[in-house]
Amino acid sequence: MKEEMSSVDIRYIVRELQWLVGSRVDKVYHDKDEIRIKLRTKEGRADLILQAGKRFHLTSYIREAPKQPSSFTMLLRKHLGGGFIDAIEQHQFDRIVKIRVGDYTLIGELFRRGNVVLVDSDNRIVAALRYEEYRDRAIKPKAEYRFPPARENPLEVSFERFLKLMREDEDLELVRALARKLNMGGMYAEEISIRAGFEKTTPVKELSDEDLRKVYDAMLETFNDEPRPNIVFKDGNMHDVVPIELRIYEGLEKEYFKTFSEALDEYFGRLTIEKARIEQTKRLEDKKRQLLMTLKKQEEMLGGFEKAMNENQEIGDLIYANYSLVERLLKEFRKATETLGWDEFRRRIEEGKKAGNRVALLVRSIDPGEKAVTIELDGKKIRLYLNKSLGENAELYYEKAKKFRHKYEGALKAYEDTRRKLDEVEELIEEEMKKELSVKKIERRKKKWFEKFRWFVSSEGFLVLAGKDASTNEILIKKHMMDNDLYCHADVYGAPHVVIKDGQKAGEKTIFEACQFAVSMSRAWSQGLYGADAYWAYPEQVTKQVPSGEYLGKGAFMVYGKRNWLRGLPLRLAVGVINYGGDEYVVSAPVEAIKAHTKRYIIVRPGRLKKGELVKRIRAILEKWGYRVREEDLNAILPPGGGEIERVVE
Fold first, then answer.
1. How far is CA 458 from each of CA 499, 502, 589, rounded to the nearest angstrom?
2. By CB count within 10 A, which of 410, 477, 620, 648 is most buried?
3. Pairing of strands 55-58, 61-63
4. What is the pLDDT of residues 312-334, one digit of tens each?
5. Is 586 helix (H, G, I), strand (E, B) or coil?
6. Of 139, 170, 196, which residue constitutes the final position of a domain?
7. Residues 242-279: pLDDT tens digits?
8. Percent of the chain at pLDDT above 90?
């Protein structure tokens, strides 16, 4: 399975991502060996991922950012945040990408272990993911950044140079010669061999110059082929992700994508989620393995204790079951040892065995030190102490059985405790598997044109738009306000322009809501006011024309003629999820407008709560209702400044 991008992959992705040039760097995140750059592009938000030694593409698989940003993160944010991407390049044909933002360049090394390095306009290293020293270059602060030693670029090599390289070691097979001499992986070397019409194992010495010309042409054709991004599957599992159609994968299952970035994201995103799933349960799985090992040892101990307990119990019972015999043996052995001594006793027992004496044949061992004789009855060895009575000998075995019973009971309790812990860990693993991963895929639909603005749908069903800043105010009035619309504006400096689409058909309720929206989205909210004035007018009254000698800045317009005033409009909005055009949107709007489109909403007004805290509280309520909303999206729809929750309607 593919683990990292090739030089060919990087060539195609760099060409594809040129549309990101001009995008603004909003924020930078760093986690382990991954750098994620949050961009504001002409198409909306985009997340660019650069993983050292692995990959570079746009992503929708977002890993939860660390709560405490690293020092590397802070440096990247300091130098890149707010800047615009001026260039995205591949260094020659190497696995190296360069992202230039103003005076700084972020260099991603995607070979071997990889690295991410930030350099300034003098090519001096500002920061790096990791600092290292090599034989020919050093990655350390203030040092000049040097690329690894140059390798042959197959896209720039002339046929004469190609021929010379291939002839340097003619005993090599074609596929090996291409891979070694021309900076490409074995897979693409094999693909070129197929396209040229030769077996990959053909020795170079068997190929004529004309044959090698075919190989050269096939190489250029492959590396300049039309993109057809796809993920290749083998036996139902992902095997590779490639930017073009490859003949080496003919007959295999494939999934095609519109862009190579989407294909890479899906491929590496699935791998990332699988790894995150493994990481999420790794500690618990390790604990489970330890408990299973403990359980196995405890089972063996239980078996041993149970066996010893039963054996000692059986021997005690056996002594009493053979009372007469054992009592007689004790008396005879005791008398013999006292009369003859232990050495003579042993000699006579051995002689008795040879003679087939029934008593002697019962004896298995003699221990003078312990004054004990071991006999065998019914296949069990019984150690008899001659200085103890039959009852005392039996009691020794019963006592041992009792001790092993206690050990067995203790071990059983420990076993049951381990079993309980194992059940708990297995439940936790199951719960973890159900939990949302730290890496999640964000499905992004294409934004509708009106989402560039603040907007809502009035209680009467009319679309109401408002500018977010000077640029969107300018666009709204110049491009989107038509003759049959209505224009609204608050009597507050810097208030947004508001347009009611098809507003000349709207009733008083919609006009009231649009004007209330205008005052609520103005600075009056951040100033903590509870009411402000607004007016409405016709589109033909709004113009850029000003008296001679005056000038209107970007987003500013003049309104001539009668203004229809609404006084003392309350600054009060509601946040809720509405369905518009078949899609669900989280919007903030006048309460009556939200109320007309949803049963659950949150009423907010100006207050002392900081906006960040207000956003978190609203987000928590929406999550309780089953809606996962990003804080930045809530920030975008709420008025400037703080506020407070007046009431939650469910």
1. 12, 12, 8
2. 477
3. unpaired
4. 999 999 999 999 999 999 999 99
5. strand
6. 139
7. 999 999 999 999 999 999 999 999 999 888 777 766 66
8. 77
Domain assignment of residue 530, given as a range: 449-649
Please report the sign of the dihedral spanned by the C-alpha atoms of residue 419, residue 420, residue 422, residue 423.
positive
Query: Based on the domain organization, do 206 and 311 belong to the same domain?
Result: no
Q: Exposed (0-12), middle (13-18) or buried (19+): which is 148, by Cβ within 10 Å?
A: middle
Residues near 499 by beta carbon (within 8 Å), at least 6 away in sequence: 464, 465, 466, 476, 477, 480, 481, 485, 486, 487, 488
**Neighbouring C-beta atoms of residue 396, cutoff 10 Å:** 18
Tokens of 523: 């600075």
* Alpha-carbon radius of gyration of the chain: 42
C-alpha pair distances (Å), 501 with each of 456, 458, 506, 544, 579: 11, 10, 9, 20, 18
Query: For the whole model, what pTM was predicted?
Result: 0.58
Sheet containing 372-377: order of strands: 363-367, 372-377, 380-385
pLDDT attached to residue 443 = 56
Which residue is it, tokens 């071991």?
374
Report the distance separating Cα 31 and Cα 110, nearest Å: 16
DSSP summary character for residue 495 = P
163 and 109 assigned to the same domain: no
The Cα-based distances of 340 to 114, 308, 337, 399 in angstroms read 88, 36, 5, 32
What is the number of structural domains in the chain?
A: 4
Contact 405, 307 (CB under 8 A): no
Torsion of CA 253, 274, 59, 621, to 10 degrees: 130
- Answer yes or no: do 506 and 604 share one domain: yes
- Residue appearing with tokens 């929206």: 517
> Helix (H, G, I), strand (E, B), or coil: what is residue 470?
helix
CATH number of the domain that 17 lies in?
A: 2.30.310.10
Q: What DSSP line would sit under 33-85, residue for residue?
A: TEEEEEEEETTEEEEEEEETTTEEEE-SEEEPPPSS--HHHHHHHHHHTT-BE
How many whole angstroms separate alpha carbon 490 and alpha carbon 498?
A: 9
- Count of all residues that appear for the chain in the document: 650
Contact 80, 106 (CB under 8 A): yes
Q: What is the DSSP letter of 378?
A: T
**Is residue 525 helix, strand or coil?**
helix
